[in-house]
Amino acid sequence: MNIRVSCSPDADDLFMMRALLEGLIDTGPYRFEIDTAPTDALNRIASGEDAPEVVAISTAHLPKVIERYQMLPHGGSMGEGYGPVVVANTPMSVDDLRGKRVAVPGLTTSAWATLQLMVPQLTPVVIPIVPYSRIFDALRAGEVDAGLIIHEGRLKYEELGFEKVCDLGEWWSAETGGLPLPLGGNTIARRLGADHIRQISALLRASIAHAIAHKGAAVDWLLDGDTALTSTAELSRYLDMYANHRTLDYGPEGRRAIELFFERTAEAGILDPVQVDYAP
């Protein structure tokens, strides 16, 4: 049985999928076909016709696809006191952002939803995340006043000379008593039925566990590919942030964080209310 998977081309997603991509674990009757797309595009894919069986989406997009997809209890990215950052060419306070043009990687992303909780009055300018340097280019050119940086760009802005305005994960942690910031997660199509969902979920979790257990080999494999992070230390730091024990299982704190994220964004009128039910 073919299982189509759509995930991002970012290091954490590829890290999770390496065992499936490279045939490193026994997948029994299932054959995984894995494609990649940028975050905002993945959200559109999950909402489209003939959507894949498994899609990595922004947590914020779940209300739009909840009738078709279940959240998997693993495969997510959470910021443990850190997260996407807003950067600018020169020092700026959070209050200075009000009314400013802010480059965002898409209007369906969790980063944009969280930023709206922080600063309600912003003018978003959508700039695709691929290549990751595009938002930095827009800042240098004066096309925008600030930029919302996600994924690998989060580790590159300082060396490129930009100033941090705020860290969304820091803000969220302070607002919620230390809960992690839910950013993205893997979802599975309800149409597969309970038995297939259970077996496919177990295989996806096994792939994540394999990557964590063989991190050194996975890092070398990623460095051989096309990644924005070009050193072992840099890539290892990024994976420690977004592909860790919380990726293997959200745990009670992670699930509470997701629940609170939807409560807060619904109260603010940013997202529709949603009740999350997890696949096995």
Q: Strand share of the residues? A: 15-25%
The helix content, as a percent range, equals 25-40%
What's the structural domain tally? 2
Biggest pleated sheet: 6 strands, mixed
Could you state the CATH homologous superfamily of the largest domain? Periplasmic binding protein-like II
Shape: globular
Reported CATH architecture of the largest domain: 3-Layer(aba) Sandwich
The pLDDT mean sits at: 95
CATH-derived topology of the largest domain = D-Maltodextrin-Binding Protein, domain 2
Structural class: alpha/beta
Distinct helical segment count: 11
* Number of E strands: 11
Order of helices and strands: EHEHEHEEEEHEHEEHEHHHHH
Radius of gyration over all CA atoms, rounded: 18 Å
| Poorly predicted regions | none
Cα distance spanning the termini: 20 Å
CATH level 1 name of the largest domain: Alpha Beta
